[in-house]
Amino acid sequence: MTIEEAKFILSAFRPNGSDAGDARFGDALRMTDGDPMLKAWFARSRAHDEAIAGKLRQIAPPEGLREAILAGVRVSDPRKNSGLGWGWIASLAAAAALVIGVFSMRAPARPESGTTALAGFAIDDMVNKRHGGDGEPAGALIARLQAKGARMPVAEQIDFEGLRETGCRTLNFAGHDVLEVCFLREGTWYHLYLTRRDGPIGNSVDRGPTFISEAAGAAAVWSDARFNYALASKAGVEALRRLL
Amino acid sequence: MNNEAFAELVDAHYAPLYRFALSLARNTSDAGDLVQQTFFIWATKGHGLRELSKAKSWLFTTLYREFLRGRRRDARSTSIEDLPQAEKEPAAEEVDRVSRIDAALVMTALQTVDETFRAPLTLFYLEDMSYQEIADALDVPIGTVMSRLSRGKSQLRMALERVESAGSKVLPFPDSKGARAS
Question: How many angstroms separate the Cα of A110 from the Cα of each of A167, B138, B144?
Fold first, then answer.
């Protein structure tokens, strides 16, 4: 090992000595014992690093940041108020019980049962489950959804099989496959759920869009000739309206 | 994860995360947003992480990715590593210089270091992460981390020199007799 190699390695040695037991530094550290110039260089380097680390420790986060983090997550994620590990049947029951506001862009109408059930399913999944879609088609769909001003997809733009077979997150809702992708639009997270328009529940989803608001979040549900859609967000109905 | 555990997680990591965010974003508002967004993602996704011991790396990695998502990477950042290594090594008086400079000015100097070097350099100075953890967080090989630390330190020394020099011109501190401090 040359002097320059030793300096290169020792540049990664933390000034507080946390790396003293790391074997990767062993040879370089031993070399400092036999080379007074290298030893002096290392001492200066550590002193300099320690001085900078000390200055950075003096940088305090802005007042209120901690409280904002805690409050923001509490408001956005009220899992403490709901039972965990519900199955989809429990979700459907909970959806009916927890709905506190129903808003429709159409003439006042009572939401169909499939609409309410899909909204409840989407909100419960959004709040209680881990997310993450994979696969190239999902990536392309997410990229499109994240674009500012982009409209929600229509049936002709959706390759349901392609999404499912390439690893897009797939759930089960009343015996139907539901695909889900998460996307971030202008600082707000949204979750789009897609299911085929068939079966007793699938066919009873209103054409919509129908907006359903719960304590945990809101969902917009609509359908077209082939699919039912649920768009869920913890940011509330107005955030959903901006995308539709 | 219950509220108490989440609060403990925030208490343990939000300050170093903020310092890292501030070095990347270069302004307090965006830095605060990045930290909040990171914990929000944890609350919605990361709480499923089985090993809490990995939470620290997860948080720093997520913050860095959120920062990268927030702006377009320019071509310059990839070519910087091809530059010859600067030969600025620490002299004894440079430790005194750092001691004289205000912490905010040290951060200002750090913010002028090229971003490719700034991210590993800040994580190194926060002292919370080993070079191996930094490599994992930034998704680069260990050798690359060491190389970036070496070059980043060199840039930082030059930046500190400039910052101190500019500070003495722009913000002279009069002594009790009205003369400028040296």
Answer: 36, 51, 61
Full set of structural domains in chain B with CATH = 1-71 (1.10.1740), 89-171 (1.10.10.10)
**Partner residue opposite A11 with nearest CB, options B19, B37, B150:** B150
Inspect the interface and report whether the beta carbons of B36 and A62 lie closer than 8 Å.
Answer: no
Q: Do A8 and B146 touch (CB under 8 A)?
A: yes
CB atoms A73 and B18 under 8 Å: no
- A45 → closest Cβ in B48, B90, B122: B90
State the DSSP string of B133-181: HHHHHHT--HHHHHHHHHHHHHHHHHHHHHHHHHHHHHS--B-TTSPBP
Q: Cα(first)–Cα(last) distance of chain A, in Å?
A: 64
Local confidence pLDDT in tens for the 244 residues of chain A: 888 889 999 999 998 888 988 999 999 999 999 999 999 999 999 999 999 999 999 999 987 888 888 877 665 544 443 333 223 323 333 333 333 333 333 333 334 467 877 888 888 888 776 665 556 677 778 878 888 788 888 888 888 888 888 778 888 877 778 888 888 888 788 889 998 887 666 677 778 788 888 877 889 999 888 898 999 998 888 889 888 8
**Domains of chain A by residue range:** 3-57, 85-241
pTM surpassing 0.80?
A: no
How crowded is the C-beta side of A172, counted as CA atoms within 13 Å?
Answer: 6
The tally of CA atoms less than 13 A away on the side-chain side of residue B19 is 26
